[in-house]
TrEMBL record:
GO terms for molecular function: palmitoyl-(protein) hydrolase activity; serine-type peptidase activity. The keyword Membrane applies. This is Peptidase S9 prolyl oligopeptidase catalytic domain-containing protein. Coiled coil: none annotated.
Length: 315
């Protein structure tokens, strides 16, 4: 009996030690994947390949890191909404251009695509504190532009980008008009147990029942569940029910956290949507939902010039 208990204790101790070693050594590589397997860090294409007029934007984050972004403007004279887009954790902004091309067509908006530090042409190495600074630099840049309607800035984040966008929106109630979250996790602490199931007893977010004794080792917790409850701007939740990476229950928990106090929240499910392709699987309904949300919550100010051509249709 004693030997059995000893073996059990040694086993548990081994799991804890192995978990600690994995977290300390590899957590950034699990959370941030700037380079997809078999590809390079550089952009495979630019917006010009898709005939999108764009501007290369170079920024400095608050800690001095040089950042790169693309600003894609619908029409030179257009003062419609501007979407500040934050991508998932893997690859770079070039891999999102096809989705952004359709976004511009369907939503009649401008799009600002930021490369996080360590991604694409941006310098540095990714971390939660660093990327939060990068997002703020992007928003500050947009807020100072004179060629857009700065009262109609919408933050759009998918997966990791949702965590980035939620924090930015919470911190800037006077600059961000609305937030769109797609397939976003409650926290990296909760995702640790999804990606590495044996860790779920030792790492977890606010809803976890485990002892959470290894939480202190997580350098990028991205606790979106604790952030969304502090957001008062309108939020659209877009959830793909076939998400193979982030359990759809995470999106449901995020919505439940904020819906009790924020009446301008909408939750929409897409039965066939997976982690990366909800925008594609959702088809026309996906874009109509997003367009209606922006029209209702980020309306055009009448005195501003519209994006219509002489025939009264969208150019």
């Amino acid at each position: 009996m004693v030997s059995y208990v000893s073996a059990l204790l040694y086993g548990v101790g081994g799991i804890v030690v192995a978990g600690m070693a994995l977290l300390v050594a590899f957590q950034e590589k699990l959370v941030y994947v700037p380079v997809l397997p078999g590809l390079t860090k550089s952009y495979p294409i630019t917006p010009a390949r898709l005939r999108l007029p764009y501007e290369d934007v170079w920024l400095r984050s608050a800690d001095g890191v040089r950042l790169h972004a693309w600003f894609i403007k619908l029409i030179p004279e257009c003062r419609g909404p501007t979407v500040l887009f934050f991508q998932e954790n893997a690859g770079n902004i070039a891999h999102r251009l096809e989705m952004v091309r359709i976004m511009i067509q369907r939503l009649q908006c401008n799009v600002f695509m930021l490369s996080y530090r360590g991604y694409g042409a941006s310098d540095g190495y990714p971390s939660q504190h660093g990327i939060a600074k990068d997002a703020q630099a992007a928003l500050d840049h947009l807020s100072q532009r004179t060629d857009i309607d700065t009262s109609r800035i919408v933050v759009f984040g998918r997966s990791l980008g949702g965590a980035v966008g939620a924090l930015l929106t919470k911190n800037n109630p006077d600059k961000v008009a609305a937030l769109i979250l797609e397939n976003t996790f409650t926290s990296i602490l909760d995702m640790a147990g999804v990606l590495l199931p044996f860790l779920k007893w030792f790492i977890g977010g606010t809803g976890s029942k485990g002892p959470k004794i290894l939480n202190f080792l997580v350098r990028s917790p991205w606790s979106t569940i604790d952030i969304v409850g502090q957001i008062n701007q309108p939020i659209l939740f877009l959830s793909g029910l076939q998400d193979e990476m982030v359990p759809p229950s995470h999106m449901q928990m995020l919505y439940a956290k904020v819906a009790s106090h924020n009446r301008e929240c909408i939750f929409v499910e897409f039965p066939n949507g997976m982690h990366m392709d909800t925008w594609l699987a959702g088809g026309d309904r996906y874009w109509r939902t997003t367009q209606q949300f922006i029209e209702n919550h980020v309306p055009e100010i009448k005195e501003h010039e519209s994006c219509h051509d002489d025939k009264g249709t969208f150019a």
